[in-house]
Amino acid sequence: MTDKIMPIGRNVTPYRPEEPHDVIQDGKTVSVPHTQFRGVNASFWPEDGSLERDDFLVEYFARGGMPEEPFIGRKTVVVAFGSCFARHISDHLAMLGYRVESRNSNTAYISVMEDGIVNSHAVLQQFEWAWENKVPEVSLWHGYDGKALGYDEPVRLETKRIFDAAEVFIVTLGLSELWYDEPTGHVFWRAVPRAHFDPSRHKFRVATQAENLANLKAIHAIIRKHRPDAKIVLTLSPIPLTATFRPIPCTVADSASKASLRSALDELMMQADDPWLFYFPSYEVVRNAFSNPYIWDRRHVHLHVLDLNMNLFERYFCHSGMNDARLARIWKRALRLDRKIGRLGAEFAKAFAEEADAERAKQRQAFRLRRQEELRLVRERRVARET
To answer: pTM for the full model?
Structure first.
């Protein structure tokens, strides 16, 4: 050791590797030399060989965090809203025939804007408005067309009805970048529509981890106050920011945005003493299970990646018959497609995504037609009973 690395006179004990220590990795006992105590719960990062395991999803994503038994049945009242991944879960459950109450309203904002309420402030606003009649001081909420959505009492009562009936809440968070009204401090759902933008009062900032954690604690507390027996499933969307309003690259801003939310979610899970509060790792499955999860825009996931996530959710939360063996087959197919996309390149990936989207669009249209017919028959029976 030279003086440039270690000053003269420093007493350095020579490194002596300890005896190998047995650990379990990928289901095998492996002897590894180390100098630190790894504890009894050491869990290792997956290697390439780990992907071949039938229980890969269980071992590296689900273990220790899922419910012991599924609790969503055909008649269970589910409410799902937040960012776009809430809509995907909602679609999947509805197509399986489950009762997703947040889809069955043409009035409540959590229904018409189910994937457009993306930050922790906006999610909390819906709970406080519906249950506590807490109304923002200024106009904050806007539809996809940019038109303002008011704080109408019938809409609030419809939202309250849905929340009051809910047995399972699924809330997906999306981002930490915020636009807010400076005089009041109130936060918008998303960016301010151009027609409503006032530079003298509408400002941009990034929610801190502490802020997101406080909002999550408030969401958890208000659900427990009004629906003490409801199950709560929190998720983080793996969809990156489309653009950032910060003067830095969007890739860097997205990393910070997701980290703030993911850290807050983890801290809530560690602090909350609640056996019916769960975190579902949709974010981790997309970003860590696949080499090529995103389509050509590098933001939205391939259909097989989405379906894997939905089937993993189904396996642990739904009484649907999904089991480990079937899930393993779905995973192996998704893994083969992921590798094929990697081999054949961007052009194949784009064509593959477009074909899959077209097929999914047909499935959704068929589902909507069936659902409309079911609702028509329900209305006819109701009218017949009343007459």
So the answer is: 0.84
